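Let's practice the habit of predicting before peeking. Look at the sequence and jot down your guess about where helices and strands might fall. Then scroll down.
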Amino acid sequence: MGSLSIWHWLIVLLVVVLVFGTKKLKNIGADLGGAVKGFKDGVKDSGASDADASTAAAAQVTQETRADKNTIDVEARQKS
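Done guessing? Here is the structure:
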């Protein structure tokens, strides 16, 4: 009784199509596909820009510590 047969899934699919309509389901699928593609591109781009951002942040920290003579100059190491 815990598992659903193919007939149960077909009835659920039919009800979903009747409630939302095929055009709306097509739009939802296209939007979902675009969101997944955008997420993948964002992850790929953020990997490259994270390295650039961390280098720029390290340079900024170094410049700020040079301005204050009371701070101790320490070299930060990148996580691998």
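How did you do? The chain has a mean pLDDT of 76.
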